[in-house]
Design a protein that fits this description.
Layout lengths: L17 E11 L9 E7 L19 E4 H11 L3 E5 L9 H10 L3 E6 L13 E6 L14 H4 L5 E6 L2 H13 L8 E6 L6 H10 L5 E2 L3 H5 L8
Parallel strand pairs: 2-4, 4-5, 5-6, 6-7, 7-8, 8-9
Antiparallel strand pairs: 1-2, 1-3
Helix pairs in contact: 1-2
Length: 230
Amino acid sequence: MPLARPHIEPRRVPTADSVVVKEIYLSVQGESSHAGLLCSFVRLTGCHLRCGYCDSEFAFHGGQRRKISEVVDEVKALGAPRVEVTGGEPLLQPGVYPLMEQLLASGLTVLLETSGAIDVRLVPPAVHKIVDMKTPSSGESDRNDYRNLESMNANDELKFVIGSREDYEWSKRLITEHRLLDKPYELLFSTVYGKITTKDLAEWVIADRLPVRFQLQMHKYIWDPNERGV
């Protein structure tokens, strides 16, 4: 396992009243235990990682700085009972914490999609955190912040995106070494789209009797994987 690079510390600024937003849209949730459910998405700008399988490079730059209250109003107007805050890496923006708090206060179910490279300990406990665990084929596995394994709770899910047999074996070792099957959160396995077949990964999981949730990135099978706003 490669040595981790220095961590970026989470930074919460309670007075922050804005975030830089790349896009807001309505769709169905494509992955996690919430897959298939109507969901609004707030995609924030910026990411410090450059994963080889990234599907949202367009969110690295640009966007518009918007008041948190305006973002919440737009999400509520979309009419879905749940919202996912994603990126990029949303935890790079201090305003993401008051944003999540205000979305929760509006009665919404709030999901957070995060890279796993920033500790989630400051995220409100009621938020459903979907935390990526960067596998070797991402090129960023040395950025994993393993403090997340203790910061997550029963609301949360740890996601392994598998692009090769090496990724799969690496993920199994990590599960064993960190006793992840004893944790309260769920473990998700999915493929890097176009790298290995879903059949291969499903059969590996079955052969090893691995008690994880096998999942597809459903939205990539419904729409063009390069299509925006889905």
